[in-house]
Write a structure and sequence with these properties.
It is a single chain. The chain is an alpha/beta fold and about 350 residues long. Strands 1, 2, 3, 4, 5, 6, 7 and 8 form an eight-stranded mixed β-sheet that branches. The longest helix has about 35 residues. The chain has 14 helices and eight strands.
């Protein structure tokens, strides 16, 4: 992290004795599933061999990014880890009566998957008939209070510990807008996480915004042009692949949403693969084009077990369950791929995306 003044003498000596590698992070959205990313970040922050330079985030990924940066600005790595835990605990407390958390006897059969619960099916039906402008005319969003309690925006804008790139989708133009540190606000983060079937669009500078995942989940290009490190670690929340073909209306809609929210990331990965190929073939000017080394952390086997309904489940037990999955995924990735940082991509982009 870029907050050395907060590191104690022992930590400084430890950092001086190991090779510290600078990386950027790209964090996907996924509502409550963003607690998986919390776990990944917690493990990466615990590793003093890594220095995080920039973060591009969307939706829950944007909130994780901003909370991490705010915590690091105040108290370095330890502050970032504490801020993330406090944020996710507030998320859980903001939903005290969690109707979408499966009871113990249901979890014994279906795990944390809540797509079959009657209360979710009713909520899903209502959201298809009535818009948030009808259901929530006062436009109340509990995340506004949580973000206000979790982030000192004035300090973050003036003294960010890392570079931030937060994506939201302009409803009028269909283009992605990337908010940088000095533009960050509660509204910018709410815009990045604004699912149009659940929340009214967020107005910023006279324009309405929806979830950034429609156009960048997350956006990689800001890290290419706005951060020096050539290594980017993508933290994937939404599964890219599913073995079973969806057959019910709910399953079909969920898979359509997954494909839509992954499509922009897949296009950027293909572009990176194409540019990398041309650079390797010496057909592009290396002084004008940047070679990116891509790394990937996911846990598709575990995340495939979860349906859309669980993205709305803020039960503390569920969030900490996802955090532990994220920590384990990051632990495995570090053990297998740390040496590759700064040397080469540790994910085969062509095999994964072409």
């Amino acid at each position: 992290m870029n907050a050395p003044k907060r590191l104690d003498a022992t930590s400084r000596e430890r950092r001086a004795s190991v090779e510290v590698k600078r990386v950027n992070l790209a964090l996907q959205g996924g509502s409550a599933h963003g607690a998986f990313t919390w776990g990944v970040l917690d493990r990466l922050l615990a590793d003093e061999r890594l220095e995080i330079q920039g973060i591009s985030g969307t939706s829950a990924g944007a909130m994780n990014a901003a909370v991490l940066a705010a915590g690091a600005t105040h108290a370095g790595r330890a502050g970032a880890r504490q801020a993330l835990e406090a944020f996710w605990r507030r998320i859980s407390q903001a939903q005290p009566f969690n109707l979408l958390s499966p009871p113990p006897w249901e979890r014994a059969v279906n795990g944390w998957n809540a797509d079959h619960l009657p209360q979710f099916l009713l909520l899903d039906l209502i959201s298809r008939v009535f818009s948030p402008y009808q259901l929530n005319p006062a436009n109340r969003n509990p995340l506004r209070k949580v973000l206000g309690q979790s982030i000192d925006f004035e300090c973050l804008r003036e003294h960010p510990a890392v570079k931030l790139f937060i994506s939201a989708t302009n409803v009028r133009t269909g283009k992605v807008r990337v908010f940088k540190e000095r533009e960050l606000s509660i509204d910018a983060l709410l815009a990045s996480a604004c699912l149009p079937f659940l929340f009214q669009s967020v107005m910023i500078d006279g324009d309405p915004y929806w979830d950034g995942g429609y156009m960048g989940n997350p956006s990689i290009f800001p890290l290419i042009y706005g951060a020096e490190s050539e290594d980017v670690i993508v933290v994937q929340v939404n599964p890219l692949q599913r073995e079973e073909t969806p057959t019910t209306a709910r399953e079909i809609m969920d898979r359509v949403n997954e494909i839509s929210f992954n499509s922009s990331l897949m296009r950027e990965m293909r572009a990176i693969a194409f540019v990398s190929h041309l650079l390797e073939a010496e057909r592009l000017d290396v002084d004008r084009y940047k070679r990116m080394r891509v790394h990937w952390i996911d846990s598709e086997q575990e995340m495939n077990k979860l349906g859309y309904a669980s993205k709305l489940n803020a039960d503390w037990g569920f969030l900490t369950h996802l955090k532990e999955i994220g920590r384990q995924a990051a632990e495995r990735w570090l053990a297998a791929n740390y040496a590759g940082i700064g040397q080469h991509s540790t994910v085969d982009i062509k095999a994964k995306f072409l």
